[in-house]
Protein backbone atom coordinates (compact mmCIF):
# COMPACT_ATOMS: atom_id res chain seq x y z
CA UNK A 1 0.00 0.00 0.00
CA UNK A 2 1.55 3.25 -1.15
CA UNK A 3 0.77 6.64 0.34
CA UNK A 4 -0.23 9.38 -2.04
CA UNK A 5 1.84 12.48 -1.47
CA UNK A 6 0.38 15.96 -1.58
CA UNK A 7 1.49 18.19 -4.45
CA UNK A 8 1.45 21.39 -2.42
CA UNK A 9 4.52 23.59 -2.08
CA UNK A 10 3.40 24.85 1.33
CA UNK A 11 3.49 21.32 2.66
CA UNK A 12 7.11 20.62 1.67
CA UNK A 13 8.13 20.24 5.31
CA UNK A 14 5.23 17.85 5.88
CA UNK A 15 6.24 15.89 2.78
CA UNK A 16 9.78 15.58 4.14
CA UNK A 17 8.40 14.27 7.41
CA UNK A 18 6.20 11.79 5.52
CA UNK A 19 9.21 10.56 3.53
CA UNK A 20 11.19 10.09 6.73
CA UNK A 21 8.24 8.23 8.36
CA UNK A 22 7.86 6.03 5.26
CA UNK A 23 11.55 5.19 5.20
CA UNK A 24 11.51 4.37 8.94
CA UNK A 25 8.43 2.22 8.44
CA UNK A 26 10.06 0.34 5.59
CA UNK A 27 13.26 -0.13 7.61
CA UNK A 28 11.41 -1.49 10.63
CA UNK A 29 9.15 -3.77 8.58
CA UNK A 30 11.92 -5.35 6.53
CA UNK A 31 14.62 -7.06 8.59
CA UNK A 32 16.82 -7.71 5.53
CA UNK A 33 17.28 -3.99 4.90
CA UNK A 34 20.01 -2.28 6.87
CA UNK A 35 21.39 1.19 6.34
CA UNK A 36 18.56 2.32 4.05
CA UNK A 37 17.97 5.52 6.00
CA UNK A 38 21.40 6.83 4.94
CA UNK A 39 20.73 5.89 1.33
CA UNK A 40 17.30 7.51 1.44
CA UNK A 41 18.82 10.68 2.90
CA UNK A 42 21.40 10.79 0.09
CA UNK A 43 18.68 10.29 -2.51
CA UNK A 44 16.58 12.97 -0.84
CA UNK A 45 19.48 15.43 -0.87
CA UNK A 46 20.15 14.66 -4.54
CA UNK A 47 16.51 15.28 -5.36
CA UNK A 48 16.58 18.60 -3.49
CA UNK A 49 19.70 19.61 -5.45
CA UNK A 50 17.97 18.66 -8.71
CA UNK A 51 14.86 20.69 -7.81
CA UNK A 52 17.07 23.68 -6.98
CA UNK A 53 18.84 23.36 -10.32
CA UNK A 54 15.50 23.14 -12.14
CA UNK A 55 14.21 26.20 -10.25
CA UNK A 56 17.32 28.12 -11.26
CA UNK A 57 16.87 27.03 -14.88
CA UNK A 58 13.20 28.05 -14.81
CA UNK A 59 14.00 31.49 -13.39
CA UNK A 60 16.75 31.96 -15.98
CA UNK A 61 14.34 31.06 -18.76
CA UNK A 62 12.01 33.76 -17.43
CA UNK A 63 14.90 36.25 -17.70
CA UNK A 64 15.45 35.16 -21.31
CA UNK A 65 11.74 35.49 -22.07
CA UNK A 66 11.72 39.00 -20.59
CA UNK A 67 14.73 39.96 -22.71
CA UNK A 68 12.97 38.64 -25.81
CA UNK A 69 9.87 40.68 -24.99
CA UNK A 70 12.05 43.77 -24.54
CA UNK A 71 13.61 43.12 -27.95
CA UNK A 72 10.15 42.83 -29.50
CA UNK A 73 9.29 46.22 -27.99
CA UNK A 74 12.54 47.66 -29.35
CA UNK A 75 11.68 46.47 -32.88
CA UNK A 76 8.20 47.97 -32.52
CA UNK A 77 9.72 51.25 -31.26
CA UNK A 78 12.21 51.39 -34.14
CA UNK A 79 9.52 50.56 -36.69
CA UNK A 80 7.37 53.37 -35.30
CA UNK A 81 10.28 55.80 -35.65
CA UNK A 82 10.78 54.79 -39.28
CA UNK A 83 7.05 55.13 -40.00
CA UNK A 84 7.11 58.57 -38.36
CA UNK A 85 9.87 59.61 -40.72
CA UNK A 86 8.02 58.27 -43.76
CA UNK A 87 4.62 59.70 -42.80
CA UNK A 88 5.91 62.86 -41.15
CA UNK A 89 4.14 62.04 -37.87
CA UNK A 90 5.23 61.94 -34.22
CA UNK A 91 3.74 58.68 -32.91
CA UNK A 92 7.08 57.46 -31.47
CA UNK A 93 7.06 60.35 -29.02
CA UNK A 94 4.06 58.72 -27.32
CA UNK A 95 6.01 55.51 -26.66
CA UNK A 96 8.46 54.79 -23.87
CA UNK A 97 12.03 55.51 -24.98
CA UNK A 98 13.49 52.25 -26.26
CA UNK A 99 17.02 53.37 -27.11
CA UNK A 100 18.65 51.57 -24.16
CA UNK A 101 16.77 48.30 -24.60
CA UNK A 102 19.49 46.55 -26.66
CA UNK A 103 22.07 47.01 -23.89
CA UNK A 104 19.61 45.96 -21.19
CA UNK A 105 18.53 42.82 -23.04
CA UNK A 106 22.16 41.98 -23.86
CA UNK A 107 23.00 42.17 -20.14
CA UNK A 108 20.05 39.88 -19.43
CA UNK A 109 21.27 37.39 -22.06
CA UNK A 110 24.78 37.55 -20.55
CA UNK A 111 23.38 36.79 -17.11
CA UNK A 112 21.29 33.88 -18.41
CA UNK A 113 24.18 32.43 -20.38
CA UNK A 114 26.45 32.67 -17.34
CA UNK A 115 23.90 30.81 -15.23
CA UNK A 116 23.62 28.03 -17.81
CA UNK A 117 27.43 27.95 -18.08
CA UNK A 118 27.64 27.34 -14.33
CA UNK A 119 24.99 24.62 -14.52
CA UNK A 120 26.76 22.88 -17.40
CA UNK A 121 30.15 23.15 -15.68
CA UNK A 122 28.75 21.68 -12.45
CA UNK A 123 27.26 18.81 -14.42
CA UNK A 124 30.57 18.20 -16.19
CA UNK A 125 32.51 18.27 -12.90
CA UNK A 126 30.07 15.86 -11.28
CA UNK A 127 30.30 13.38 -14.16
CA UNK A 128 34.07 13.72 -14.47
CA UNK A 129 34.61 13.00 -10.76
CA UNK A 130 33.02 9.54 -10.98
CA UNK A 131 35.60 6.77 -10.75
CA UNK A 132 35.56 3.08 -11.58
CA UNK A 133 32.93 1.13 -13.46
CA UNK A 134 30.27 3.83 -13.03
CA UNK A 135 32.30 6.29 -15.14
CA UNK A 136 30.42 7.03 -18.37
CA UNK A 137 32.79 8.49 -20.97
CA UNK A 138 29.98 9.28 -23.42
CA UNK A 139 28.08 11.29 -20.78
CA UNK A 140 31.29 13.10 -19.80
CA UNK A 141 31.96 14.06 -23.43
CA UNK A 142 28.38 15.26 -23.85
CA UNK A 143 28.61 17.35 -20.68
CA UNK A 144 31.94 18.81 -21.82
CA UNK A 145 30.50 19.77 -25.22
CA UNK A 146 27.50 21.40 -23.52
CA UNK A 147 29.83 23.36 -21.24
CA UNK A 148 32.13 24.40 -24.08
CA UNK A 149 29.29 25.47 -26.38
CA UNK A 150 27.75 27.54 -23.58
CA UNK A 151 31.14 29.16 -22.99
CA UNK A 152 31.34 30.10 -26.68
CA UNK A 153 27.83 31.58 -26.55
CA UNK A 154 28.83 33.62 -23.50
CA UNK A 155 31.91 34.94 -25.31
CA UNK A 156 29.88 35.78 -28.43
CA UNK A 157 27.23 37.58 -26.37
CA UNK A 158 29.88 39.58 -24.56
CA UNK A 159 31.58 40.49 -27.84
CA UNK A 160 28.30 41.62 -29.43
CA UNK A 161 27.82 44.13 -26.63
CA UNK A 162 30.21 46.54 -28.34
CA UNK A 163 28.08 46.49 -31.52
CA UNK A 164 24.93 47.75 -29.81
CA UNK A 165 23.56 51.21 -30.35
CA UNK A 166 23.23 53.74 -27.54
Produce a short descriptive summary.
This protein has helices spanning 12-29, 36-87, 101-128, 137-160. The protein has 166 residues and is an all-alpha fold. Mean pLDDT is 82; it is low at 1-6 and 19-34.
* Low-pLDDT ranges: 1-6, 19-34
Number of strands: 0
User: Number of helical segments?
Assistant: 4
In angstroms, what separates the terminal alpha carbons?
65 Å
Strand content: under 5%
Overall, the morphology is: elongated
Please bin the fraction of helical residues: over 70%
Average pLDDT over all residues: 82
How would you sum up the major sheet?
A: none
Characterise this structure.
There is one protein chain. The chain is an all-alpha fold and 166 residues long. It has one domain. The protein has 4 helices and no strands. The protein is elongated and about 75 Å long. Residues 1-37 are annotated as: Disordered. Residues 26-37 have a biased composition (Low complexity). Residues 1-25 have a biased composition (Basic and acidic residues). The chain crosses the membrane at residues 56-76, 104-121, 142-160.
Distinctive features:
mainly alpha; 73% helix; 0% strand; 166 residues; disordered N terminus
What topology emerges from the helices and strands here?
Blueprint: H1 12-29, H2 36-87, H3 101-128, H4 137-160
Helix pairs in contact: 2-3, 3-4
Amino acid sequence: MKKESKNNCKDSQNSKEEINKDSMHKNSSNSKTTGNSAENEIDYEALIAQVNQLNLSFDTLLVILTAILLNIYYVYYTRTQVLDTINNTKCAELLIDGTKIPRISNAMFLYATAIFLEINYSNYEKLDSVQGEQRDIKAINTAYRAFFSTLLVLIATAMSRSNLEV
